[in-house]
Amino acid sequence: MVFDDTNPVLNIASRSSLGKLDRAQNAALRLILGALRSTTIAILELEFRYEPLSLKRGEQTVFAHERYLLTTVLIA
After folding, report:
1. Cα separation, 49 vs 72, whole angstroms
2. Per residue in 5-31, pLDDT tens?
3. Is the distance from CB of 2 to CB of 20 less than 8 angstroms?
4. Whole-angstrom Cα distance, residue 39 to residue 57?
5. Which of 25, 41, 49, 71 is the most buried (most CB within 10 A)?
6. Which domain of life is it from (predicted)?
7. 32 versus 56: which is more confidently predicted?
8. Whole-angstrom Cα distance, residue 16 to residue 38?
């Protein structure tokens, strides 16, 4: 992963802020892989074996929610 922006708090960030993070990530993927700007992001993610940021953010939110539920059950 180029940027670790999978913090579940980012799910409350604005779409424009998340878009900036996504664009920076995509630029980094292109740079690392030496790809042209016209190469689609899906191809870069497949080549780098990297899942889309939106999926990673959602996954981390689910994990955070599960941790919260687990700690509330253990405390009670």
Report:
1. 35
2. 556 666 677 888 888 888 888 898 899
3. no
4. 23
5. 25
6. Eukaryota
7. 32
8. 22
The answer to whether 23 and 3 are in contact (CB under 8 A) is no
Residue-wise DSSP of 9-74: GGGGS-HHHHHHHHHHHHHHHHHHHT--TTS-HHHHHHHHT---HHHHHHHHHHHHHHHHHHHHHH
Report d(CA 15, CA 7) in Å as an integer. 15
**Percent of the residues in the chain that have a pLDDT greater than 90, as a whole number:** 1
Q: What is the mean pLDDT of the chain?
A: 79
pLDDT for 4? 55
The amino acid sitting at 11 is N
